[in-house]
Amino acid sequence: MALMNCPECNREISDTVEQCPHCGYQLKKGYAEEDSKTTGRKFEVFRRNRKKIIIVIIALLFICAGSIIYCYYNAPVRKITGYLSVGKVTEAQRIYDQKIKTDSDAAYQLEDSLDDLFKKMEMNYGEGKLTYDEYCEVKKFISKYYQNYEVDKLDSSMNQLKNSKASFERARQEEKNKKYSNAIFLYNKIVKSDKVNYREAQKHLKDCQDKYKTEIDKKIEKLMKDSQPSYDSIEKEFTKNNFLNDDKKMTAKYRKLKIKVRDYQISQAKNYQKQNKYQEAIAALEKIHKDNIYDSEVKECKTSVEKAAVNWATTEAAKYANNKKYGKAIDVLKSYQKYDTTNMVADKLKLYEGRAKKAVIKEFKRLKSKMTIKYDSVDREYTVVAKGRETGYINLSNSINLEARAQVSKRDKDTTFQLIAGFQQEDWIFTEQVAFAVGNYRETYIIDYNDRYTQIMNGGICEWMYLNDLEYGDLFDPIDKLVSKITTSKKTTIRFGAKGNGTRTHILSTSEKSNVRNMYKFCVLLNRYKYLYKYL
Fold it and tell me: For 129-185, what is each residue's pLDDT tens digit?
């Protein structure tokens, strides 16, 4: 016999009774035997699994021991990263000096946690728990003890957050100043990771957009009443602020403004057409918005203007051509060629360009007949001077103080115009400046020692200088302007001078001016029309 507990009152009773003597609970027959058997089976299961249970217990003990060790070493790391993540460098420094500096395991633990630390700092900065200056101080702290760690790798996203926060502050100021367009632009630059400002920015953005729409609405109303309506300023706003395009009422008003501009510019174009001001008429039509350029009213007006413009251009070109002013005739036709759909302008251009080429060749041959040209087989260049003068040396004398000549490379199709000022006389001047007086026009060239050429001649001396070779930069007008003044003037005076050595004054002869004019035009034609080199 053995003792057992009553299932009802839990008191000890004999395992042979069928009813509890204490509470009267009716026990099932054979309950005790069954319970005894069950207990035996449980013991047998425990005996068979004893090894496994022991292994599990040992493993749990190891895990507990490892956790204890991990927590022991990681506690300082958790504390220091917690301080650093919110910018408390002073507290972090104290932990480092006391717990980590002399513990290599803890130091390694800290190094392994740096990536997570920087991610946490980025999150805290976005939530306003860390300032940018504190972030920079943390970087200095980390780089001091972990030189190989890339402390700048988060700079891009942190700078983005920094700029986002700065944009928010500027946006608030612009909103306060009622500059809603600027405020909208800045609010849209707030990034989602800037959690503190992003939520606030979305609220202000909607308010600014509504106020800005009211402003644009008033501007459109004002432009609609203008006698010279324009859509340019409104177009810029719609391009810059896409949300305006989502407002159906706003876009409807803008369409009306564009139609108003269309009708006004068509009216302007028709008025210009009546005055034969076709370039202005075409320019007026080009001011119509791209959304309206295919409207029937615009197409009809454009066709009328372009047709009239082409007819006028061909008539004007014919007038120039009849006076052998082919260059002007060609310029007029080219200005309107793109509006011609019948090839009438192209045919006239071909005709006048042929005539112009013949005229150019004829003029070039005329000028060539007034030149002496000599080919140098060594330099493979042509030297060109006025007819009757020598190519081998400078043609200056007591009566000729200005000579024009040219160096021509037929192979390279390149021509250089040269303007040489100088003289022959008995005494030296050692020229330091050359001054030209043409009517009210004055030009003075400063002559450096290296730019002055001298030679002793029979019975005197000679001084000269190449004016077009002087490096005078912005101090003087181009040589082309001087040539133009000389060749179109009635009187041109040239004066050579040097301080302490006196001066020489000379009035250019008709022959001198004519030679300069012919040589300059000869060079201009060669440089402009490359096909002339074959006539050289």
Answer: 888 888 888 888 988 888 888 888 778 888 888 898 999 999 999 999 999 999 999
Give the strand order in the sheet containing 381-386: 371-376, 381-386, 402-409, 414-425, 460-466, 453-457
- The predicted model scores a pTM of 0.56
Backbone angles phi, psi at 401, to 5 degrees: -115, 0
Closest C-alpha to 284, from 229, 345, 207:
229
Q: What angle do CA 73, 77, 83 make, to 5 degrees?
A: 150
Cβ–Cβ < 8 Å for 431, 445: no
* CATH class of the domain at 370-535: mainly beta
As a whole number of Å, the CA-based R_g of the chain is 50
pLDDT in tens, 503-526: 999 999 999 999 999 999 999 999
Q: Is 508 in contact with 494 (CB distance < 8 Å)?
A: yes
Residue pair 130/196 in contact by the 8 Å Cβ criterion: no
Determine the Cα–Cα distance for residues 464 and 234; give it in Å rounded to an integer. 65
CA distances from 271 to 119, 225, 277, 313, 336 (A): 69, 21, 9, 18, 19
Are the C-beta atoms of residues 85 and 121 closer than 8 Å to each other?
yes
**How many other β-carbons are positioned within 10 Å of the β-carbon of residue 16?**
10
State the sign of the Cα–Cα–Cα–Cα dihedral 176, 177, 178, 181.
negative
Rounded to 10 deg, the angle between the 296-322 and 344-368 helix axes is 30
Task: Record the tokens describing residue 377, joined without a space.
Answer: 């087989």
Buried b (16+ CB within 10 A) or exposed e, 444-459: ebebeeeebeeeeeee
Q: Which residue do the tokens 């972030």 mark?
A: 135
- Nearest 5 degrees, angle CA 476-CA 482-CA 488? 155
Query: Which of 33, 32, 38, 42 is CA-nearest to residue 12?
Result: 32
How many whole angstroms separate alpha carbon 526 and alpha carbon 535?
Answer: 10
- Residue 165 and residue 187: Cα distance in Å, rounded? 10
Q: Give the separation between CA 477 and CA 468, rounded to whole angstroms.
A: 11
Distances (CA, A) of 70 to 56, 66, 506: 21, 6, 106
Work out the mean pLDDT of the chain and round it to a whole number: 88
Burial class (CB in 10 A: 0-12, 13-18, 19+), 440: exposed
